[in-house]
Amino acid sequence: MQPQSSAEDLIDPHGRTVRDLRISVTDRCNFRCQYCMPAEGMQWLPREEILSFEEIERFARICTEHFGFDGIRLTGGEPLVRAHLPELVQRLASLNVDIALTTNGATLRLHAAALAKAGLKRINISLDSLRRDRFLELTRRDELDRVMDGIDSALSAGLNPVKINVVMMRGINDDEIVDFARFGREKGVTVRFIEFMPLEAGDVWNESLVVPAEEIVETINDAIPMEPITRGSEPAERWRYTDGNGEVGVIASVTRPFCGNCDRVRITAEGQFRTCLFAVDEFDMRTLLREEADDNKLVEAIKAAVGTKWAGHSIGQVNFIRPSRTMSQIGG
Ligand code: SAM
Ligand code: SF4
Q1: How far apart are CA 111 and CA 98, in angstroms?
Q2: Minimum mean pLDDT among 66-70, 80-84, 205-209, 270-274: which range?
Q3: What is the architecture of the domain spanning 20-330?
Q4: Is the peptide bond before 13 cis (omega within 30 degrees of 0)?
Q5: What would the mean pLDDT of 176-196 be, rounded to a whole number?
Q6: For residues 163 and 154, is the Cβ–Cβ distance under 8 A?
Q7: Which of 50, 168, 247, 286 allows an S-S link to 211, with CB 3.0 to 4.6 Å?
Q8: Which atom of ligand 2 is nearest to the CA of 77?
Q9: CA–CA gap between residue 258 and residue 236 (Å, rounded)
Q10: Residue 326 CA: which ligand 2 atom is closest?
């Protein structure tokens, strides 16, 4: 595709300009987090169904060059189980957009330096407990030490910021809120607490498991005083510690959804385009990519899909329809 002198804004029916692409590079994972995957029995996509690096790069190029996207996040499944991921990062870095990655961190120590060298700037590492027994119970893997090494490797590789994603669940890890806040301050990483969403493989979600963002903020503030930071377009509400030692974020996807500012779209590992994490419709971009459709066809397909982006999800309301895919299959 020829670089466009001026990009076309990709505006959805609710007036939001879409600029952020989440790319799932695999549906596979080396963990089995309770809230995301069953212990056994996941059916992985056959290799040939997964988009190649060339196909991902072409799709991303259209988004950045034609529509002026300014952010790309790689996710999965676990993105680091995809072989040669730094090669993809390098290809995407040539598009001159902000490249980020979300990982469970288990093998990050092996890859952090190569990823940074390839052009990765920012990283989010998921970690839901600082206690070994609980970490094992939640992820069904005894890998807490490796994740901790991964966090250190990300910092040593110069990735900045390093953020820690913590999914908060009532009665499961909500007694670790302040421990996580202290951990973030000591390590020099930004902890972001995420409300538990109904995207898990089993049918365990219910509203009583959600720890509201407001409660998380109050709990931290009682122990370590904080003040709000003015919010931008990002989903996290941010707070800084009044002693100047760091900040914390809360993503209130359930109790205070950020849908009004949502600028995201997603493409799954097998090339299905989604306009919302909770979307029930998908748009097949892989067929177009593999039929060698010209760029205009892809541009029109992306516009048509974004034309269906809804105003927001309706978690907790009677009309909420749970997506048939889990978070690991969509790409969180
Ligand atoms: N495997 C990588 C990881 O765990 O970071 C990337 C994919 S994972 C699906 C992306 C993020 O989604 C993780 O931070 C994970 O904790 C979060 N997540 C998964 N299931 C969730 C749920 N039901 N509610 C809220 N967050 C969830
Ligand atoms: Fe794997 Fe991430 Fe899902 Fe955990 S949350 S099972 S690490 S994809």
Answers
A1: 19
A2: 205-209
A3: Alpha-Beta Barrel (3.20)
A4: no
A5: 97
A6: no
A7: 168
A8: 8
A9: 8
A10: 3
Rg for the chain (alpha carbons), in Å?
19
Helix H or strand E encompassing 238 = strand 237-241
Ligand 1 binding site (Cβ under 6 Å of any ligand atom): 29, 35-36, 75-76, 78, 102-104, 126, 165, 167, 194, 196-197, 199-200, 327-328, 332
In whole angstroms, give the CA distance from residue 179 to residue 175.
8
Pocket of ligand 2 (CB under 6 A): 29, 31-33, 36-37, 76-78, 104, 126, 327-328
Q: What is the mean pLDDT of the chain?
A: 91
Bridge-based pairing state of the strands 283-284 and 272-274: antiparallel
Residue with tokens 């120590």: 109
* Nearest-angstrom CA–CA distance, 44 and 30: 12
Statement: residue 208 has pLDDT above 70: yes
The strand ranges marked E within 20-160 are 20-24, 71-75, 98-103, 122-126
What percent of the chain has a predicted confidence (pLDDT) above 90?
74
Residue-level pLDDT at 233:
67
Q: Is the pLDDT of residue 168 over 90?
A: yes
CA distances in angstroms from 258 to 42, 182, 193, 234, 277, listed in the order given: 31, 26, 15, 8, 12
Phi, psi for 182 (deg, rounded to 5): -65, -40
For 178, list phi and psi in degrees, rounded to 5: -70, -35
- Tell me: the pLDDT tens digits for 310-330? 776 666 665 666 666 666 676
Q: In what order do the strands lie in the sheet with 190-195?
A: 226-229, 237-241, 247-251, 190-195, 162-168, 122-126, 98-103, 71-75, 20-24, 264-267, 272-274, 283-284
8 A C-beta contact, residue 13 and residue 307 = yes
Cα–Cα distances in angstroms (integers) from residue 116 to residues 60, 90, 148, in the given order: 19, 9, 18
Query: Which pLDDT does position 320 carry in this prediction?
Result: 61
Please check the confidence at residue 2 and state whether its pLDDT lies above 60. Answer: no
Mean pLDDT of 149-175: 97
